[in-house]
């Protein structure tokens, strides 16, 4: 008798355990939220992976090759900028905002050339006339071109900007192009990732980089190392008085660059 009661009690307990639990509304929300978060993380990883792949491509090809690359597959440009935007969201300060702040202190009559403008934030943030240049244009105000061959008239610009856009194996020709479009005494601003200027990890020496830019017709005005993510270089275009010898050397260098572009 006692044993049958025990069986009953055991059976009753088992029966209760086998009843399906009804999830609470909050548990339901949690279950729906988890896959969504997982998918968001996966999309972010894929976006980051594509960004790194395209970024590597842009650093190891010429500007002309990059232009052809995006012409062939325009969606890659959007993918690159989505990844770029995601990367920049983690930075405590963005170099383009520092440059915009500096530009707002200059004359509103200054004409600006924004090389590799991306979303054309400079043009959207200042009252100056801005030539927004990039490899692909999804905006009627952005000029799609090779940064080494822009449609801007010579000596017509007061400020040339390269904000995280000095990429490619022929980036020297981009600096030459900025020299061409700048007026004598005009400003050249270059913002670059700090890791690119760490000689301990294979990066360029900042002083050597600055000297190399100076050799292309500029004076170094200032170097800003205050940000932990990027370095900002300020140069001015030299007022060049050509002697017969310096003119000859200039033409030789120019011819060498032109041969390299073909």
TrEMBL record:
Keyword Flavoprotein among record annotations: no
Xref: PANTHER family: RIBOSOMAL RNA-PROCESSING PROTEIN 8
Coiled-coil region: none
Location in or out of the cell: Nucleus, Nucleolus
Molecular function per GO: methyltransferase activity
Record protein name field: Ribosomal RNA-processing protein 8
Comp. bias (Basic residues): 1-13
Gene Ontology process terms (BP): chromatin organization; methylation; rRNA processing
Function: Probable methyltransferase required to silence rDNA.
E.C. code: 2.1.1.-
